[in-house]
Structure prediction request, 338 residues.
Amino acid sequence: MIKSFCPKIFDSFAFSPSLGASGGILIVWNSSIFGGTLLQVQQFAVVIEFVSRHNNERWNLVVVYGPCQGEARDNFVTWLYHLNIPVDENWLLLGDFNFLRFMDNRNLPGGDLNDMFIFNEIIGHLGLLELPIKGRSYTWSNMQDAPLLEQLDWFFTSVDWISDYPMTEVLPLARTASDHVPCMVTIKTSIPKSNIFRFENYWLELEGFMDCVDSSWQKQSRKGHITARIADKFKSLRMCLKRWQKNISKLKTLICKCNSVILLLDELEEYRTLYRHESNFRIVVKSHVEKLLDLQCLYWRKRCTIRYIKVGGENTKFFHAMATERYRRNSIASLKIA
Prediction:
């Protein structure tokens, strides 16, 4: 099941099963980058210690799915309050806590003040620091015409985490299917990219591709031998495709722009009910995102080939990070002339 939606490089996982249609936690990782040790599995949380294969740095991840009510909620509160977080370790806690911290964490009047006091007391007791979500006030919607919006998803770190990883950010993504806003926790880095030409399989699905190929192939070649003419035509085709691809938008950019539109409409919905044409436009954009994601699937499928079996980590972020390190080491910042 996991292999059906995760890239092959994510070969390790831990989970807490769902109860009916609610709950459930799944964590997947690449064992060539991180070694993962499962510390706890609860009905409402999974705790894993990760160790970097690169520099042996250790950090702990806690992913929670807080119960809404009943005895399970009481057990979750008790477990979270007594969670042991040493002051000299790096911890990242995230997930759907199903708690509000303040009255303005929902767009409509209401909220349980006692729950807010309990949640804030736990945060203070554990000495956690909140990672704010950039540009969003709420993370959950009941998906009604006049929606109830709340912030139920939270991201916290230990004090040491902020010192070691000061560029940690939580970025909201477009809510395309779930009633929760997907979020991405990032630690920024920059990796140089190669400028070599690559043919992309998804080009076959784009308008204008066959016209470009046909016009290039019809050009006359001055080469004498048949094999030389074919090689010359392929070289000409490569140049034509390089020029053609500059005129098409990159998939990542298109998906990013569509998600930005969805994100903008989601944010607007926090202040007022969307008009009919705005709601319909969001549906159209979500449908377009699905088509773009299908093309992106073709893009990445090409990169999951037998070559990965031969060269291993070349397709991993760890390989990219090592390439960046070599790039920095080999670069010449300045020359001193005596």
